[in-house]
Amino acid sequence: MKTRKDKFGNINQREIANELGVSQSLVSKILAGRNEASPEMTGKILRLVQEKGYRPNMLVRGVLSGKTKTIGVVIPADGFFSEIVHGIHDCLTRAGYAMFLVWNDDHMVAPDSKKELEYIHSLVDRRVDGIILRPTHDEVSQMYFNEVHLRGIPMVIVVREIAPAHYDFVGTDDRAGGELAAKHLLELGHRCLGQIAGPSIVSTSRGRRLGFESAVADFGPTASCLTIEAPGFSNAKTQILELLQSTPRPTAVFAANDDAAAEIYVIAASLGLRIPDDLSVIGFGDLVFAPHLTPPLTTLRQNPYSIGENAAALMLTKCASKHKKKPAPEVMNIKFLPTLVVRGSTCAVKQRSQSV
Amino acid sequence: MKTRKDKFGNINQREIANELGVSQSLVSKILAGRNEASPEMTGKILRLVQEKGYRPNMLVRGVLSGKTKTIGVVIPADGFFSEIVHGIHDCLTRAGYAMFLVWNDDHMVAPDSKKELEYIHSLVDRRVDGIILRPTHDEVSQMYFNEVHLRGIPMVIVVREIAPAHYDFVGTDDRAGGELAAKHLLELGHRCLGQIAGPSIVSTSRGRRLGFESAVADFGPTASCLTIEAPGFSNAKTQILELLQSTPRPTAVFAANDDAAAEIYVIAASLGLRIPDDLSVIGFGDLVFAPHLTPPLTTLRQNPYSIGENAAALMLTKCASKHKKKPAPEVMNIKFLPTLVVRGSTCAVKQRSQSV
DNA sequence: TTGTAGGCGTTATCAA
DNA sequence: TTGATAACGCCTACAA
To answer: Under CATH, what is the fold of the domain B174-302+341-354?
Structure first.
C-alpha cells in the first residue's frame, strides 16, 4: 500500500528497468558505461533515462564506495578567505567534487572550540572525502587529530599551521613576508623600527614577527626594533599608542596586518604624526581597503586564490592515493611568497626626525 | 575474506552491537533517544558509542528518509554575494543543516547556461533538500523548472527574479531603490537627469530603471530623464560618454550599480567635469569601495546578510512543510527596502550649470 | 546478453 | 526489553 513512482522526479534504476521489462542490474551496467547489453537495449535504456530525467543517487554510491566526491571546507568569513574558497571551489568543481562550506567565525582564540568540533562532526556525518581547514589556533590540533586523523579522513590545513606537523599545509610564507617588510624599511634608511605583532599563539603572527626581527638583527647593531604584541589582529589601540609614544619613537612601523595598519593611521593622526613623513607604515595582507587609505598603504600581498587552488589540488591527490590504497604521500608544506606592494605610506627616513 | 572493522574510524552500529552481544537494531533505538532498553544496556551502549567515536551516517539516513539536511546554494563569487551566503549559512547552521556552495561566476548573460545546469545536477545527484539560487538571467527559468521544480525540490530565488513567478523570492526592492534615487536628486533641485541602466533582461536592472523613471514622471513635466542601457553592469564606457555628452547635459546621473558609478567618475574627470559640483552621481549597492571613492559615493545600500538569512529561513519552512506533506505554502516574495546613503557625490544643483 | 542475489548502514515494523 | 526482517537505491559477483 505504499506510494510509489508518485512523483515525476526521483526516479530510480528499478523503475527504468521495470518499464522496459529488464532487470535493474542491467540498467546499472549500461549507466556505468559498460557495453554489456545489445545495442537496441542500450539505446532504449539510455533514451528512457534521458526522458525520465533519471539522476544517479550519490548518497547510495557514497555508502557503497566510501567516496562521496565531496570536500568540507571550514574557514572564516571575510574577503580574504572568500578568495581562498574561490580557489578551492574552482579546483574541486573541475574535478567533479562538491564543496560543503562552513564559515568558522571565531577569528580569534576561541575557547569554545566545541563549536568547531560540531562543524567537523557535521562534515564527518555526511562522510566527506576530506576536510580543508583554517584552524582557529594551535591548541585545537589535538581535537582534529582525534576527530579527523583517526578516522582516516585526509585533511589539509590552510593559512595557519598547527603544532604537530602531521598535516599538509598550504599558506603564505609569513616569515619571508616579515623579512621583506623589514628590508624595505631598512633600505629606506629607517633604523629605529617598531612592530605591532599579532597574538603569538597564531602561526602567522609568529612567522611575521620572527621574520621581521631576524632581518633587523641580520642588518647589524645600527638598527633596532621594538616589538609590542597585541592580543588580536585589530583593536590594538593601547599597544599602538604605547609604541608610538616610546622613546626613541620609531620612524617606521610594521603592522601584523592591514587592519592594525589602519588603526595606526588613526592613532598617528591623533598624535599629530603625518604618514609617511613622520612615520612610515607597512601592513600585511593587501586587503581591499589598503589602496583606498590616505595615503595608500604599502603592504605585503598574499595569494589567497592560489592558496585555495593548491590546497584543493593537494586534497584531491590525497583522496586519490587513499582510494588506491597507495602508501600515503609524504606530508606537503606549500608556502607562497608574499609580494611587496609599495604605495604611499612608506618613504625614506627624514634626517631631522631622528631626534624626539 | 573481506577486510572489516580494519580502521579505527568509520565504526557502525553493528560493530557496537556485536561487541556488546546485542542486536544492531537495539543500538539504533537507543541512539535515536528512545528509552526502550534497560538502563544498564543503555549505559553500556552509549559509553561504547562515545569511546569508539561512532558517528551516524547521514548518507544512509538520507537514502532512507529522503531528507539530507543539506541545502545547495548557487551564487556568484563576490563581496556582495559573500554576505548573502553568510546570512544563509548562519541560518542553516543554526538549524543543523549543511550548505553546498557553488560559485556561479557567469555574472552576465551566460549563453552557456549548460554550466549552470551541471551545477544543479551536481546538487540534485547529492539529493539536497533544497536549492537557493541567483539566476544568471531570466530565460534560464525553463531549465530550472524542469530540473528542479519537476523533481519537487524546493527552490528559493535570490536577488534576481525570474519570469514565471512560481518561485519564492528574496531580494531588494529595486524599484523602490530607483525611486529613492530619483527623489533624492529631485529634492536637490536637479531637473535634467540621466541614467545608466543595466541590461533589461535582468530583473534588478529593470526594477531600478522603472523606479527611477516613474519617480521622474510622477514629479511632472519640469523634470526629464535620459536613460541609456548598458550591455553589462560595468564596462559601460561608451554609454556613459554618450550620456555625458548629450544635450542638454544631465546635472545628475543615476548608475545602475556602484561599478558603473565608479566608471562615471573616471569619464567625468576626463571630460573636465567635477563631482559633485558639475555632476551629481548616485550609485546602487554600497559596495565596499563606495565610501573610499573621492568624493565618497552617494548610493543605495542593500541588505545582503538579511537577504541570505531570510532566503534560508524560507527554505527551511518549505522543507518542513514538504516533509509533513502539508499543502505547499503560498509563494513568498520578500523585498528589502534599500536605504539611501548620502555621501559626497551628490549636491544641490548649481543654477549656472544648466546651460551647456 | 541478461538475470539473480547479496550487501552497504540505517530506520521502522512487528514479533518474541 | 530485545531481536528479526524488510526496505532504501545502487553496485558487483556470479549464474544462466
So the answer is: Rossmann fold (3.40.50)
